[in-house]
Design goal:
The complex is a heterodimer of chains A (194) and B (126). In chain A, 71% of the residues lie in helices and 0% in strands. Chain A has nine helices and no strands. In chain A, α7 (143-154) crosses α9. The longest helix of chain A has 24 residues, at 170-193. Chain B is an all-alpha fold and 126 residues long. Chain B has helices at 13-23, 30-39, 41-48, 52-84, 91-95, 102-108, 115-125. Chain B is rod-shaped, with a radius of gyration of 41 Å. Classes of the chains: A mainly alpha (194), B mainly alpha (126). Chain A binds chain B through residues 1-2, 5, 31, 34-35, 38-39, 42-43, 46-47, 50-51, 56, 59-60, 63-64, 67-68, 71-72, 127, 130-132, 134-135, 138, 149-150, 152-154, 156, 159, 174, 178, 181-182, 184-185, 188-189, and chain B through 1-3, 6-7, 9, 11-12, 14-16, 18-26, 29-31, 33-34, 36-38, 40-41, 44-45, 47-48.
Chain lengths: 194, 126
């Protein structure tokens, strides 16, 4: 696995942070600056798109759509506000549009053989097995719910930011994260106990 | 990892790490993805220029409706104004001055008109 580039959490998400300069340069036609923005947010955007769509290839297409749409709309971005939620909203919308176009694909049922544990030849296989389980479990959740929990527990966005990204009330975000966590934690607990 | 933490307002590191691993893009480096996006950079900016017909189509609907309403209103008012006037019986009547040489004399005269005649003809038309 490639070395993890930390998603733009903390200081990078503060309004007027490093993104402000990159955004300004991109607006003045600096392609390299846009490239740095893409590089910085690509891991996060791809994960969020995958949370919405499930399919990794389609998720990459959606993430690309999101970045290019953000490029076109960049003049509308308010530099006094955090860049991450603004961009993730565009990416999530791009992924949701794709999902609507293709019709909601039915979640693949969990493989009973995987749930029971089975042989664990090495750590990578174990990680892969858990990842497969989690992806299947995510696929069973409603799209908005799985996106909310990924934005919260993986990307570190606040409830308020997720509300802005998904265009739903903050209370609804809390509810979605609660239900998603309950399901996913139960799965993790079962897997660890197996 | 218990349900007591379900309402935590903080991210769950264990769940987050597991989900992150599950959602990592398979194969291909981040650099390849960045290159793929940048390859569409120029095309995306070119598409930003919306064709004129699309702009027209966007605002034409309501504005055309407003123009139709305005034209109908103007036509109605103009029609009412014309109906309220007494229409002349004929072309000759319309050009016939009330008295004096008037417009007919001005038009048929061989000599240049005196300014007072022009003024008088205009006044007589009123």
């Amino acid at each position: 696995m490639a070395p993890e580039r930390q998603p733009p959490e903390g200081a990078a998400r503060i309004a007027g942070g490093p993104e402000a300069d990159l955004v300004a340069r991109t607006l003045s036609g600096d392609k390299a600056a846009f490239g740095l923005l893409v590089e910085r947010y690509a891991p996060q955007a791809r994960r969020v798109a995958r949370a919405v769509l499930g399919d990794p290839d389609e998720a990459d297409d959606a993430a690309q759509d999101g970045f290019l749409s953000a490029l076109v709309k960049l003049a509308q971005y308010d530099a006094r506000r955090p860049f991450g939620p603004w961009l993730m909203r565009i990416v999530a919308n791009a992924a949701t549009d794709r999902r609507r176009r293709r019709q909601v694909r039915r979640a693949e049922p969990l493989d009973p053989g995987l749930v029971g544990g089975g042989p664990r030849p090495d750590a990578e296989a174990v990680r892969s097995e858990l990842a497969e389980l989690l992806r299947a479990a995510l696929g069973e959740l409603p799209p908005r719910r799985r996106t909310a929990v990924v934005l919260f527990d993986v990307e570190g966005y606040s409830h308020a930011e997720i509300a802005e990204i998904l265009g739903i009330p903050e209370g609804t975000v809390r509810s979605e994260v609660f239900h998603a966590r309950r399901r996913l934690r139960a799965l993790l607990a079962d897997w660890k106990g197996a | 990892m218990t349900d007591e933490r379900t309402f935590d307002h903080r991210p769950d590191p264990e769940l987050g790490a597991a989900l992150r691993n599950a959602l990592e893009p398979r194969g291909g480096t981040e650099g390849a993805f960045v290159a793929r996006v940048l390859a569409r950079y120029d095309a995306a900016l070119a598409e930003r220029t919306v064709p004129t017909w699309q702009v027209l189509a966007a605002w034409a609907g309501p504005r055309i409706a407003a123009a139709v309403v305005a034209a109908a209103l103007c036509g109605f008012l103009a029609g009412r104004a014309l109906q309220s006037r007494d229409a002349p019986a004929s072309f000759d009547t319309a050009f016939e001055p009330a008295s004096g040489p008037g417009l007919a004399a001005l038009v048929t005269a061989s000599d240049p008109p005196d300014a007072s005649v022009v003024f008088a003809s205009l006044v007589e038309q009123r």
